[in-house]
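Mods, move this if it's the wrong board.
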Amino acid sequence: MKYYKGLILFLIVLLITIPIAAGKERVIRSGNRGGPTTLDPAEAWDNTSSVYLANIFNRLVELEPGTLKIKPSLALAWDSDKEGKVWTFRLRRGVKFHDGTPFDADAVVFTFERQMEEKYKYGEFVLFKEIFPFLKGIKKVGKYKVQFILKEPFFPFPATLSVSCTSIVSPAALKRMKEKFRLKPVGTGPYRVKEWKKGKKIVLESFNGYWKGKPGIDKYITIIEPNMDKLFELFRKQKIDVLTSFSISKMVIFKGYEWVGYSYSSSLSTSYIAFNMKNRYLKKTGVRKAINYLWNKDILKLVYQNHVKPLCSLFPQGMSGYDCDLDKYPLSVEKARKLLNKEGLQKGFQLSFLLHRDTDLHLPIVNIFSKNLKKVGIRLKVVIVDMNEYFSRVSKGDYDLTFSSWIADYPDPFSIISPLFSKKIQSEGLANFSTGKNIDILKMIEKARTIKDPVKRGRYYIKLNNLVVERALLIPLYQDINLILYNKKLGKIKLDSLGMIDLFLLGKQ
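Not the wrong board. Structure tokens:
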């Protein structure tokens, strides 16, 4: 359910202390306002849980550090038939789970069939069906070889295997522990769960039998503290050394400290203003273009203090298909007025802008934006409701304009553009582009997944991106930035391509 990211401001704090004395246990001490909801990768969907899952489990593939390229992990190599419907993966030998049982084809088949057939289900398998709509079956074709059979051609398939719900679990451990598996999971990753007291503390310890070698950190301890001010104070007193995901005001203060360093990476997210194209005004392309011309990107700088990256593209920077070299709609009241006059709307009209109470930064953005709209006669009525009513109104199409966002589940543009034209996802409360009539774009989306060559597929996504922007199906706003502050005495700390700290590498940097 990552399509709700950006609608709610999650404040997650990670605070780290690393003893550096020779011979001593290397420990990360962290503090967080809240812990993960589950450590069963089939159930997890939130960012907090993902931090732990990435270090407890491995998947068949992983992302190359610093890039979005897919590289081998538990799978050594793979290939497909010419149609992209049968994918064969050759598996790594000699890998052990934390419980000592061997990793092999049976473990891979179990991990996927468990979610396909919903066996051993003690909660909700949130992401699997959303990410794998084309998966028909998986079969063992050797002790260290598996085949995935798809219903339809899908050449971005290897990228989908980087998602956390594909983390390979120990069949023996899950069958033995059943619902307790979510509390003390067993994977093949560099860390295993030593202790978890919900609402109080989580302790990860290094797994010395890890197939890549000895992890860089011996222990990762998270103290759960709901009081954000206490965590900030600990960082200020340099009793803890790394801070990530925090309020903009605190970040600005801390970045001014001489001893504080920072590192950032751009997330694979896109935030935008959505149009309800069933509205009698907004179904006109000229009106949507006019409103685009009235958006001022300087509003983001004023509100977010340069801590988001402005977009003029559907796809975020860093992903193939991104195209923002030329801003299609630079701020121009004159061009907006001409477009509205051409549509016979010289006298103006009124639109509503739907917001929910849980976002504190969206209201000032709308208030500033409304001043430009007023210059051409568009009157904006702001409607603020609670979260439940917000999702209900969006699902029923009871809005004109609203903020919306999406974060890619895997690093291929299909993960963004397909859901954003899905009527099903609109019906679940995400304002997307399915309220318009874009049959040709839907056909292009389906064609994109059948293009084998990734370079050609990337060029095709650029065409799709430009068509969405040309028709003004949205107002692109920004992509999120993952930013951490840390004590410089630790040296340089880098975030991976998804904005996470790799504990396996941290002690080795």
